[in-house]
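Minimal example, chain plus pyridoxal-5'-phosphate.
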Amino acid sequence: MAQRELAFTVTPNEQPVPDAERDAILADPGFGQHFTDHMVDICWSERGGWHRPRVQAYGPISLDPAAAVLHYAQEIFEGLKAYRHADGSIWSFRPDANGRRLQRSAKRLALPELPVEYFVESIKQLIAVDGSWVPSAPETSLYLRPFMFAKEAFLGVRPAKKVNYYVIASPAGAYFTGGVTPVSIWLSTDYSRAGKGGTGAAKTGGNYASSLLPQAEAYEHGCAQVLFLDAQEATYIEELGGMNVVLVKRDGTLVTPESDSILEGITRDSILQLAQDRGHRVERRRVTIDEWREGVESGDIVEVFACGTAAVVTPIAQLKAKDFTVGDADAPAGELTMSLRQELTDIQYGRLPDRHGWMTRL
Ligand code: PLP
Ligand code: COI
C-alpha cells in the first residue's frame, strides 16, 4: 500500500495536570510512575493501512475482552528518551534506530510495520503538546514509550487484522533507586529468557513477563537485575532482564555478547562506538559465563557494566549465582564505565558536539 502523509488530529486534554503539580513531579520523577497529559494513537487495519493519527488526552484504552493481545500477547514496544538542552530545546537520541527496531519486532510478532517517518513524527507530535513535561534537572528526561498491539476481537490464533499504535510519555530520573551506584547481578540458572528462533531479539511483552520470576529471585538475593544465559547450553551470557551487558578487559578491550536471542541495544551500540572512537578494541562475540567469572577472579576483567535507555550505563560490581560470587559489592564504579557514561550523556544533553549525527530535534 502506498505510504501517505499522516495528518494528526490534536484534541487537547481539557483537564491537564495543574502546573504546580507537574513541577513537583518533574522535581522528583522516579521512573515510570507519572504520565503526561496526552498520548498518540494511530489505527491500522488490513484493509485501510495506517490511519486516524491522533493526539488526545492520556487515558484508559477501551478493549473488547476478546482482543487478541489479551489472549495471545501479540504486542511490541520501544523505549527512548527526550532530553532538554540548556537552551530549552528538546531532543531525542537516535529515534530512527528505535523506529527500525520497532519494525523488526513487528515482523517477528506478525504485526504491521510502522514507517520510521511515522514513528519519529508521532514522537514530535506528542512533544509538541507535552513539551513542558520534559524535565530540566540533571540526569532527568522524558521517557517515551511507543507500543503496538493486536486489538481485533476474535479467539482464533492468527495475526490480528486490527492493530493500534500508541505513544505515552513519563518523566524519568534514575532507573535504579540508588542512582548511578554499582549494582549486583543475579545469574539465573533455573530460567532462561529466550531460545533459538524465539522472540528474544524482539521487544515484546512476553520476554519481560518471563523475566519477572527470575527477577524476583534476583531481588531476594539482593541483586538489582537478573542475568540470563543462552537457553540451549546455559554457557554463554545473553543479557539482563532489561539491559545489555559489556565487560572491560585489562588491556582496554570491550567485550559484549553476540546472539540472535538478545535485544540489540541502541545504548550499547552507541557506547561501543564511543569507545572505538577513543581507540579501544571492541569484540562482539559469544562470551561464556566462565570468561566473566574467571576474568574477574584473575584480574583480566577490570570493569563490567549494564547499558540501556532506562539504565543509561550502570556499573556492575558483583555477580552472584547459586554456587559462586565474584566481585565486591562495595567496589567503586569503573573509571572507563563512568567516563563513557559521561560522554554519552554529554552528547544526549547537548554538552558535547553530536559528531555522529545521533540527535534529532523534537
Ligand atoms: N535488553 C533488554 C532486554 C532491554 O529491555 C533493553 C532496553 O530497552 C536493552 C537491552 C537496551 O536497549 P536500548 O539501549 O536500546 O534501550
Ligand atoms: C528501556 O531501557 O527502555 C527498557 O525498556 C527497559 C526497561 C527495564 C524499562
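The pocket of pyridoxal-5'-phosphate (ligand 1) is lined by residues 79, 239, 242-244, 263, 265-268, 308-309 (CB under 6 Å). Residues 116-130 form the longest helix (15 residues).
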